[in-house]
Automatic annotation (TrEMBL):
Belongs to the MsrB Met sulfoxide reductase family. Residues 1-28 form the signal peptide. This is peptide-methionine (R)-S-oxide reductase. The keyword Signal applies. Residues 44-165 form the MsrB domain. Its EC number is 1.8.4.12. It catalyses: L-methionyl-[protein] + [thioredoxin]-disulfide + H2O = L-methionyl-(R)-S-oxide-[protein] + [thioredoxin]-dithiol. Gene3D superfamilies: Peptide methionine sulfoxide reductase. Keywords: Oxidoreductase, Signal. It comes from the Bacteria. One of its GO terms (cellular component) is cytoplasm. It holds the Pfam family SelR. The keyword Lyase does not apply.
Length: 174
């Protein structure tokens, strides 16, 4: 073994804790430290009468709506996308784009209004995201979006409510 190989091995070993820390999935403590919204302490069942059955399945049973089924796919007016359950603003229309996937897609959420978790439902790990306030499942974030961030926040349309810019936002539900 030559000196260069030995030095590279030491450098790799020294970096392992950093690599591990960066690649691990976030815990509740990690997520709560990045959230600026106070989470509601409301059981999911209490949302059943406040949202449509399809929205409830997506938001609180982590279902996925069929691709191409949401009118929000073609929504191109200026406005804000809210959580369909608690009405927390999640996305600005300036960050919406057509991804060709069949679901409303965004380049980034409103800072602090989204929480994330690792999801293994499709065997390979994905990053699931949810409303930071009510915990409602919104969709998944992927690393295949447009520059500069390279993120695609792929959302279930039924989990969102659109409000035109200039219109009064509904009061947050509690």
């Amino acid at each position: 073994m030559n000196r260069r190989a030995v030095l590279q091995s030491f450098a790799t070993l020294a970096a392992l804790p950093l690599i591990s820390a960066c690649s691990r999935s976030k815990t509740a403590a990690d997520i709560s430290s990045t959230i600026t919204i106070k989470p509601l302490n409301k059981p999911h069942e209490e949302w059943r009468g406040l949202v449509s059955p399809a929205a409830y399945q997506v938001l609180f049973e982590e279902d996925t709506e069929p691709p191409g089924s949401s009118a929000l796919n073609k929504e191109d007016r200026k406005g804000t996308y809210l959580c369909a359950a608690c009405y927390l603003p999640l996305f600005d229309s300036a960050n919406k784009y057509e991804s060709g996937t069949g679901w409303p897609s965004f380049t980034q959420p409103i800072t602090g209004h989204i929480g994330t978790a690792r999801d293994f439902k499709m065997i390979l790990p994905r990053t699931e995201y949810h409303c930071a306030r009510c915990g409602g499942h919104q969709g998944h974030v992927f690393k295949d979006g447009p520059l500069p961030r390279g993120e695609r926040w792929c959302n279930n349309g039924v989990a969102l409510k659109f409000v035109l810019r200039g219109a009064q936002l509904p009061a947050l539900r509690s």
